[in-house]
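Risk register update: the risk of archive-format incompatibility is retired. Evidence:
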Amino acid sequence: VQMQVRYIGGREMGRLFTGYAFTDGSLRRAGHRADARGGWSAVICDSKGELLFGTYVPNPHPYPTSFNGELLAVIQLLQHATPPLIIYIDNQTVIDGWRSGKAWCTSGERATADLWRDFWRLLEGLGPGVHLEKCKGHATEQDVDEGKATARTKKGNNHADVFACRGTDIAEDISDNSL
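Archived output:
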């Protein structure tokens, strides 16, 4: 799958990801591993979780997974980011990797060490002021009422999820359907 970048909220030169960011990966599988299609998105929202702008793309990996889609979303966001930046992610494995540090993530024992190397290179290049934070995926109003999510993280994560699924839709549309 080739990269077919789509922009949300228009594309403007010099627009940087800063403030409140939300990323997500998406995956659909119809049987075999080779049938998997995925996408990812990265969006910027205001303090209330309202969508400002972002991007979404099909996952270009020959064998997309939910995890490499999640990590690709963060990597692509970091390529166009500037601090201060809080990146909300609903994938605990990305959060755990970040907390475990560069040496753990980039170890040859990790199946995604190549992606983690890109992640750490970009993160270190940005310097201080970038923070990753876990948010609840697919949060409901009840989750907000119970303090498991905030209105901002519920809305922001929902935006990221919707557009990650659109990236997956593109991957399905352009795939070789003879598989």
